[in-house]
């Protein structure tokens, strides 16, 4: 592996290479971006390139240092991961203690903090002075998904490098090459930011059926019939789908609504649900644009609530009711006596 | 092998004198005066946002009181003491990272050492950085020492979050609040650095950096570092855009032009293109917010210095600003800012971005109809009125051609119906009465039906239903049974499956409400004509040879009919739960 072997992140890798070439490597970076797009890989490559015997802008992958880093047993490359739910202050203190000792000559220490947003307030604060004025030559790499949940004081000490989600057509092509169905690969590529996750999604049993069910469900919702509520039970909850799968269902729903919106606006972009283009054309006239927008917002809300400690069934039912004309508008069929 | 020997710009260019500390004159002037007169306090608290110079000020202060040529308002930076403090090797100036040493034990240790006299210089200076992270016990252990330290000790506490400090600590310190550094100060400092490094830099690029830094000098220098690493020893707009991930001004102008034109599809295409070039949705929203703010400034305060300096030269911005009213810009800004908040946690920021832009485009479209201010708006309104007048004229003509008698007979209870119309600015009442009087109306309308018009009607039908629902939910319940099957510029023919639905919809009050909504939706008065589906099919087969009616709409509705038949909720409930459990109470 080397910088060049990381797909789809040439912007970042070129920047790092240039930094090494010009001896302008900063002492703290923050790699921000979605999962599975090569942030950790890039951090490792940076560590290798900085410590490589060949002393070029990229790792040689043959020298002792490169091999040791690759295998995860280089003494001066530290990787911190959340201990349970969060990164604790003791982990950071341990690291600082270790970095107090001088290292062998010509070594650049690298510390990589995975999921840096999970650092406790104490841990993040204790990193501040250390990040600002490191004692030994070192490079810190903070890897995070939510750059906004890092302390602003931490962030202002780092150079932030953004990792873009991989291009959907690239992922789709790769998946197709691996023998996945074209239509399914295309949908999966739009949902996941990285290749591995897309592969996982595409290889779900009956993924096409899942898509179809979502489309059907949205049809039920727009028709205003109470079947849509029933479907929450029969289609999703009853099947004992786990939380992750339900999140996937909502993501599919969101993309489907987006397809409908594109259709409504008469845009010429290829839809995410290629195979179901006909259904899209048929369903689009039944939605009004404002209702679509409202619906999408509701789905996004539901998606966020699903992550919290709420019963998934309640979340889905609320979503359906809200999409069908506002939960406050829902009236009981039963007359008051 | 490479060594990271490079020192970040913000470390190299840490201010070494009070006059270097830009943007904080209210602090530096006070400190300088105190130093000049020789009465300084034993405890200071420096608070303020990141990158505004708190730690730097503390270090300069330590040098100034201990300088061999002082104490003077500015340290000399040449004597032994000054140099050693800058290096951090003087034992009497202690910099404590309170975030790492936050326990009561560390503070006790400090308290024990405080009493020893300084070894090399006049004062022992304790700089306690990130002091907000001390534990409550540690703070309390510090209280007595902070209040009455030995004469040779100065405490300087620095923090970004002064509200986390107990008030007992704050009351024992002289407090200085550092402000965010103004744009012009940052730019000036950047220019100074660039010049002394011998780097080529464009002024506009430096302004962009300063903007992105949001008032933090360290952020600005970090960015500058990044730009230099990206573009070699060149600081230009392109490099800054690449590093901050911002959108070019031209692209922003294009997008806002789409917004002002209400062109949702166009703006989405532009977003596609931007994202394909590696732009991030979040960044895009932020840039749009900044752009809208600029437009708002041009509109609302054209004489402002910032506007004169930065925005006046650009004719495309001036032009763009004229297309929006301040109220509209406010609305757009609101929507965008709300979206920015949501986007921080959203799983699909891109979809959210698209939604927001579509919404902004639509809001822009609708607000022009509603508000009565602004040029474009007036234009729309005039057009609408013209249409209405033309229609009224036609009605009058028609009425006079027919004998007026049936109309009067038809509605003896409300003889002034036709007078009411222009006064209320609504129409429909007289037309409707005409319609009711004539059963042939349906077939006439069917014959004149315009397929293109029908298509738009069908497209807006869900919207119309929603609006009706807002007004009166029961009317919506009746109307939902019907589908538009034919339409002209003046009327819509709706086919019903159930007689009761049709009859209730036909009721005076209901019909009036629906026609009113129609007028609002399409901007012109429309008649509502109803028909039974069976009759409609009959009529259609009869007229098939002569009239070409859009078949697609018919197929659509037929689809819907079969769909609803197979998914009657009551039937389904019986299927699922069994007959005994289902109770139908409607």
From TrEMBL, chain A:
Family annotation (Pfam families): DNA_pol3_delta2
Example of a GO biological process term:
DNA-templated DNA replication
> What is this protein identified as?
DNA polymerase III subunit delta
| Record gene name | holB
Cited NCBIfam families: holB
Q: Which domain of life is it from?
A: Bacteria
Q: Which PANTHER family match?
A: DNA POLYMERASE III SUBUNIT DELTA (PTHR11669:SF8), REPLICATION FACTOR C / DNA POLYMERASE III GAMMA-TAU SUBUNIT (PTHR11669)
GO molecular function terms here? 3'-5' exonuclease activity; DNA-directed DNA polymerase activity
Automatic annotation (TrEMBL), chain B:
Which InterPro entries does the protein's record reference? Answer: AAA+_ATPase (IPR003593), ClpA/B (IPR001270), DNA_pol3_clamp-load_cplx_C (IPR008921), DNA_pol_III_gamma-3 (IPR022754), DNA_pol_III_sug/sutau_N (IPR012763), DNA_Rep/Repair_Clamp_Loader (IPR050238), DnaX-like_C (IPR048448), HLD_clamp_pol_III_gamma_tau (IPR045085)
Its Gene Ontology biological processes?
DNA-templated DNA replication
Tell me the keywords, alphabetical order. ATP-binding, DNA replication, DNA-directed DNA polymerase, Metal-binding, Nucleotide-binding, Nucleotidyltransferase, Transferase, Zinc
Enzyme Commission number(s): 2.7.7.7
Q: Which domain of life is it from?
A: Bacteria
MF terms per GO, please? ATP binding; DNA binding; DNA-directed DNA polymerase activity; metal ion binding
What ranges does the record list as Polar residues composition bias?
545-555
Domain AAA+ ATPase: from-to ranges: 40-182
Tell me which stretches of the chain form a coiled coil.
none
State the family named in the UniProt similarity comment for this chain. Answer: Belongs to the DnaX/STICHEL family.
Query: Per its record, how is this protein called by name?
Result: DNA-directed DNA polymerase
Protein's organism: Marinithermofilum abyssi
């Amino acid at each position: 592996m080397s910088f060049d072997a990381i797909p789809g992140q040439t912007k970042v890798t070129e920047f790092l290479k240039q930094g090494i070439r010009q001896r302008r490597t900063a002492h703290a970076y923050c790699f921000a971006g979605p999962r599975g797009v090569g942030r950790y890989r890039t951090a490792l490559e940076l560590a290798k390139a900085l410590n490589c015997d060949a002393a070029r802008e990229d790792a040689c992958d043959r020298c002792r240092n490169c091999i040791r880093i690759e295998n995860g047993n280089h003494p001066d490359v530290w990787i911190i991961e959340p201990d349970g739910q969060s990164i604790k202050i003791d982990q950071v203190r341990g690291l600082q203690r270790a970095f107090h000792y001088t290292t062998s000559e010509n070594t650049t220490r690298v510390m990589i903090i995975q999921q840096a947003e999970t650092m406790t307030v104490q841990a993040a604060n204790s990193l501040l002075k250390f990040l600002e004025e490191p004692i030994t030559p070192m490079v810190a790499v903070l890897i995070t998904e939510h750059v906004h949940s890092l302390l602003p004081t931490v962030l202002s000490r780092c150079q932030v490098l953004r990792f873009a989600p991989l291009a959907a057509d690239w992922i789709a092509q790769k998946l197709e090459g691996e023998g996945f169905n074209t239509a399914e690969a295309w949908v999966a590529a739009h949902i996941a930011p990285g290749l591995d996750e897309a592969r996982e999604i595409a290889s779900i049993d009956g993924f096409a059926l899942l898509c179809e069910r979502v489309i059907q469900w949205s049809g039920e919702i727009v028709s205003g019939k109470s079947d849509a509520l029933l479907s929450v039970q029969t289609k999703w909850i009853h099947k004992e789908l786990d939380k992750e799968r339900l999140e996937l269902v909502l993501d599919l729903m969101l993309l489907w609504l987006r397809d409908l919106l594109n259709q409504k606006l008469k845009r010429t972009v290829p839809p995410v649900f290629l195979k179901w283009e006909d259904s899209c054309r048929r369903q689009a006239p039944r939605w009004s644009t404002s209702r679509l927008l409202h619906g999408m917002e509701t789905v996004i809300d539901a998606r966020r609530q699903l992550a919290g400690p709420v019963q998934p069934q309640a979340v889905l039912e609320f979503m359906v009711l809200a999409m069908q004309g506002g939960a406050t508008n829902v009236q009981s069929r039963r007359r008051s006596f | 092998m490479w060594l990271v020997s490079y020192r970040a710009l913000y470390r190299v260019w840490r201010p070494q004198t009070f006059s270097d500390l830009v943007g904080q004159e209210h602090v530096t002037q006070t400190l300088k005066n105190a130093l000049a007169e020789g009465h300084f306090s034993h405890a200071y608290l420096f608070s303020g946002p990141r990158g505004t110079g708190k730690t730097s000020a503390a270090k300069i202060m330590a040098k100034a009181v201990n300088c061999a040529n002082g104490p003077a308002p500015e340290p000399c930076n040449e004597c032994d003491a000054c140099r050693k403090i800058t290096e951090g090797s003087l034992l009497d100036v202690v910099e404590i990272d309170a975030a790492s040493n936050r326990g009561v034990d560390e503070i006790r240790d400090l308290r024990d050492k405080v009493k020893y006299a300084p070894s090399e210089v006049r004062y022992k200076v304790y700089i306690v950085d990130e002091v907000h992270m001390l534990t409550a016990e540690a703070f309390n252990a510090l209280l007595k020492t902070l209040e009455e330290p030995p004469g040779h000790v100065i405490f300087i506490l620095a923090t970004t979050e002064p509200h986390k400090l107990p008030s007992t600590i704050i009351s024992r310190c002289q407090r200085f609040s550092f402000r965010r550094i103004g744009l012009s100060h940052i730019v000036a400092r950047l220019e100074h650095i660039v010049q002394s490094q011998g780097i080529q830099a464009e002024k506009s690029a430096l302004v962009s950096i300063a903007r992105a830094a949001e008032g933090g000098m360290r952020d600005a220098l970090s960015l500058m570092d990044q730009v230099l690493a990206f573009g070699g020893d060149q600081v230009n707009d392109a490099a800054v855009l690449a590093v901050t991930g911002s959108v070019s001004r031209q692209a922003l102008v294009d997008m806002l032009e789409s917004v002002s034109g209400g062109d949702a599809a166009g703006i989405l295409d532009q977003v596609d293109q931007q994202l394909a070039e590696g732009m991030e949705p979040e960044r895009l929203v932020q840039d749009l917010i900044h752009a809208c703010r600029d437009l708002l400034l041009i509109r609302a305060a054209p004489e402002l210095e910032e506007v004169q300096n930065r925005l006046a030269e650009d004719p495309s911005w001036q032009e763009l600003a004229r297309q929006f009213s301040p109220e509209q810009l406010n609305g757009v800004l609101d929507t965008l800012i709300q979206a920015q908040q949501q986007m921080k946690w959203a799983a699909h920021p891109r979809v959210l971005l698209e939604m927001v832009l579509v919404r902004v485009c639509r809001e822009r479209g609708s607000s022009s109809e509603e508000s009565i201010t602004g040029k474009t708006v007036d234009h729309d309104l005039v057009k609408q009125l013209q249409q209405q007048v033309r229609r009224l004229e036609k009605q009058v003509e028609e009425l006079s051609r027919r004998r007026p008698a049936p109309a009067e007979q038809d509605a003896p209870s409300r003889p002034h119906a036709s007078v009411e119309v222009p006064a209320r600015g609504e129409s429909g009442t007289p037309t409707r009465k005409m319609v009711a009087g004539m059963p042939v109306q349906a077939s006439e309308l069917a014959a004149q039906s315009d397929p293109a018009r029908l298509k738009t009607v069908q497209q807006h039908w869900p919207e119309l239903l929603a609006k009706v629902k807002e007004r009166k939910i029961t009317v919506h319940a009746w109307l939902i049974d019907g589908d538009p099957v034919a339409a002209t510029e003046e009327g819509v023919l709706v086919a019903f499956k159930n007689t009761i639905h049709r009859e209730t919809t036909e009721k005076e009050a209901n019909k009036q409400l629906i026609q009113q909504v129609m007028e609002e939706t399409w901007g012109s008065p429309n008649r509502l004509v109803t028909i039974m589906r069976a009759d409609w099919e009959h009529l259609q087969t009869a007229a098939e040879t002569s009239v070409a009616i859009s078949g697609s709409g018919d197929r659509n509705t037929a689809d819907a009919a079969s769909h609803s038949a197979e998914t009657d909720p009551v039937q389904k409930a019986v299927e699922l739960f069994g007959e005994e459990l289902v109770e139908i109470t409607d």
